[in-house]
Amino acid sequence: MGDASTTVATEHAVELRHVYKRYTTRKARRGAPRVVDALHDVSLSVAQGEFVSIVGPSGCGKSTLLKVLLGLTRRTAGEVAFSGTGDHQHRLGMVFQQPLLLPWRTVTRNLLVSQDINHRLPPAEANERAAGMLKMLGLEEFADRYPAELSGGMQQRVGIGRALMHDPQILLMDEPFGALDAMTRDQMGMDLLRIWERDRKTVLFVTHSIPESVLLSDRVVVMTPRPGRIADVIDVDLPRPRGLENINTPEFGEIVRRIRTLLNSENSAH
Amino acid sequence: MTTAVESEPDPVVGAPPPERERRQVPGAVLTGIVLVVVLSVWQFIVRAFDVPIVLVPAPTDVLESLVDGLTDGSLLEHAWVTLQEILIGFGLAVAAALLCAFLITQSHIIDKALFPLLVMTQTIPKVAMAPLLIVWFGTGITSKVLTTALIAFFPLLINAILGLRSADPDQIDMLRSFGASRMHVLRYLQIPSALPHIFAGFDVAVVLSVTGAIVAEFVGATSGLGYVIQATNFTLDVSRTFAVLVILSAIGLALHGIVVLCNRKIVFWSAEHRTTTEQA
């Protein structure tokens, strides 16, 4: 947006400045209200086209961060600035842990959910894009099937496709592969990289898995709970395109070890 | 799937049907066999002990009376009257229940103001309202339709409210992440999510509608199957009374069947869950 920071060479897609989120839950009638600092002084700038992962234990505010960005949760304090202008500026595509497909819609119609809400494209063009998306996802022959007929991995691919059909400025992913088995999970990670290499969308990827975050990302944001804050941001300078074989390299192991050490020291400090 | 209010309108005629578990193995054949056995035993006892026909008629007497009534058209005429009352009353109840459910789920104020009142009115046995409705609307079809609607209304309302509130909160977040308004959420998520519950309500209500129409006819009518039951009771034509019961059970079964069929067609995505609870 209009301030000085945007004039730097790599333009940011989104910038969070000193964002706080505090939940106050009143437990029963007596007793002091319980206060949870889900986000504590979180500042983060994500560049255009950057793939950033957020790792951390449960309750560190990873998911809250995405909800704040989406506007599903109101932040307590701080600023969130998106780059770009107009309609596109705040357009975020969210992929949830569960596929959350509508069971009464075919795969194609599920991809068109955003279109049905926003009517951004003429119908013919939207259908064409949906067909193209199915092809990219490798789900062409499932165009007219219902979600119940798909495997978990296929359903989640439709979930990713649905978010991409929204043509988002930033793709937000909240543990998108968390509900899948390990093999499917690896495969999905590779698929995601393939899709990402193609159009280099900005991605904010929340995960529990340190290796997954290292394999996919340019940078890994390490968060710690109570209060939820950023402990450190680790650069992942492994060459792209990457594959599963990267996992066995010493460089990869070194970065994973750094993140793990960071998380452990932060945990024992509390 | 919440099918807690699922009804099981089994045939009125004959003994209690065998357990569901057992019936699934040989299916309808077993039911048929049991029915035939029960009817044969009934026939045998009535004939063997010379039970007076004004007390319990034999199945063959009932059949004879049923065929007579159907061929001379009198039973069909009365059945048509009752069927009209059932269908109009049911339709009215559906419209009112869906409207109320919509208002209650969309507005907290209406929910707080209206819902307790609706629950309170449920403490009044609706059957007790039938005589009043006759006084107000006469012995014509209107009083029957209203009694039917009153009886069918509440299960429809409760199921519709339950259904409209059954949408997955994560799904709501999903739609909102794409910029969905409340109307979008209602249209794309809450209404489809409500359909399985609404159909469960239909199933209960359609059977209650038959009861409603008959009760209303008992109180005061000049035609309809309820009227025939009273009239034949008075003339001790018990075979005809039983014949009417057969027709009523057929109507109930047919309506239930239509609901189940529509449910499978319209709410196809939850069909798997339902076929396990319904019989195959």
TrEMBL record, chain A:
SMART domains in alphabetical order: AAA
PROSITE patterns assigned: ABC_TRANSPORTER_1 (PS00211), ABC_TRANSPORTER_2 (PS50893)
Gene3D superfamilies: P-loop containing nucleotide triphosphate hydrolases
GO molecular function annotation: ATP binding
Pfam assignment, any one: ABC_tran
Residue ranges of domain ABC transporter in the record: 14-250
InterPro entries per record: AAA+_ATPase, ABC_transporter-like_ATP-bd, ABC_transporter-like_CS, ABC_transporter_ATP-bind, P-loop_NTPase
UniProt KW keywords: ATP-binding, Nucleotide-binding, Transport
Domain of life (superkingdom): Bacteria
Entries under PANTHER family matching the protein: ALIPHATIC SULFONATES IMPORT ATP-BINDING PROTEIN SSUB (PTHR42788:SF13), TAURINE IMPORT ATP-BINDING PROTEIN-RELATED (PTHR42788)
Identification of the protein by name: ABC transporter ATP-binding protein
UniProtKB/TrEMBL annotation, chain B:
UniProt keyword annotation of Transport present: yes
Subcellular location(s) per record: Cell membrane
Residue ranges, annotated region (Disordered): 1-21
Residue ranges occupied by any ABC transmembrane type-1 domain in the UniProt entry: 79-259
Organism superkingdom: Bacteria
Membrane topology: Multi-pass membrane protein
Primary location: membrane
Residue ranges that the Swiss-Prot or TrEMBL entry lists as coiled coil: none
TM annotation in the entry: 25-45, 86-105, 117-139, 145-164, 208-229, 241-261
Tagged with keyword Cell membrane: yes
Swiss-Prot/TrEMBL keywords: Cell membrane, Membrane, Transmembrane, Transmembrane helix, Transport
Entry's family note: Belongs to the binding-protein-dependent transport system permease family.
Name of this chain's protein: ABC transporter permease
Organism (species): Actinophytocola gossypii
Classification of source organism: Bacteria, Bacillati, Actinomycetota, Actinomycetes, Pseudonocardiales
